[in-house]
Amino acid sequence: MSGVPLGRAIACLIAAVLLSAFFAATETALMSINRYRLRHRAKQGHAAARLTERLLSRPDRLIGVVLLGSTLANVAAASIVTVLTLETFGERWLAVANGGLTLLLLIVCEVGPKTYGALHAESIALPSSYVYRPLQVLTYPVVFVINGIANALLRLLGVSAEAVASHSLSADELRTVVAEAGALIPIKHQQMLVGILDLERIEVEEIMIPRADIVGIDLEDDWEQTLDRLRDSPHTRLPLYEGDLDHIVGILHMKKVAGQLARGDVDRDLLVELAKSREPYYIPEGTTLTQQLVAFQENHRRHAFVVDEYGEVIGLVTIEDILEEIVGEFTTLPQALKRGVHAEEDGSFVVSGATTVRTLNRTLGWSLPTGGPRTVNGLVLEHLETIPQAGTTFRLGEHTLEVMQISDNAIRTVRIRPLKH
Questions:
Q1: Are residues 129 and 227 in the same domain?
Q2: Is residue 169 part of a domain?
């Protein structure tokens, strides 16, 4: 660099170092920016956000410009230091000078700027888009050749640069985003959003009312008993069946029965006539809550009977049950516990073996395992790997379970006591 003033050479060195730092910081910022916030700002009309999103639509071209500029800046800095050292101190100091430059570039042009870029991605990435867009145009021929060679090598490995990632989130990833929203989304709203996401992987038999707990009217029952059940029923709709739930005649709407019942005009023929006006709605087991919620809307129904592969009724699911998976229980805790769960004064709970594990976890805030059997009966049998005797007690996670009643090789009731911490 003979003939070039020392001050100008040092100024060029500083400029090269600053350019290298600029490329390092902006590269990290552009690659770290929140794509969804960027898209939101772009849709709101933010010019820099639109430009940045356009640059990131082809990251191979952007990276080509960044690395070209960074490489030229680093090479220029190394060349200036080499010439200055040779002219000023001689060849013996060349290794020391290059070592010092390497350390300088590592700290000032790599670690420092990239760390800053990662911590302030948006504030750096958006303004830098006004620099990179003209650079893309100016360096297009060179970058085109470089990217062409690089993309050809990538295709040999089965990678296509044109297939840009859509940056779409899976349900599990979106669930994590919601959980990490913190104070931005109230806890109750977070729970509702996660509940909506969970509908896709929950099947109707996990939340249905078991067959044994379905309340209905049997035409073969004593007539006085039937009248008492009609008068005392808290439900607005009751299935009318002959003998068992596999022979449902129809659905009784209690509003239609109430007036006739008050006048004493109700008989079996009238019940059959009223029930047949609303045929039962059957759905197969294995139906997800998302599918069933849509089906309820399309069919204008509020409840459905779940049947197994043999066509036998195994439970009842209502639209309220599905909505409770999203918004939580509509009723207070004691009322919600009436379905096979009874709180004891000592803090334990007597639970029907047909109660679903998911219902317990959601209603009582427990963490019983849900990856296997759906009911308490199945959970106990899987854990013990045998049909236990009444009185068998064991620990499962943070709960102590005591088998209370067994009938027909099935566990009817279990006492569950949460462990105190």
A1: no
A2: no
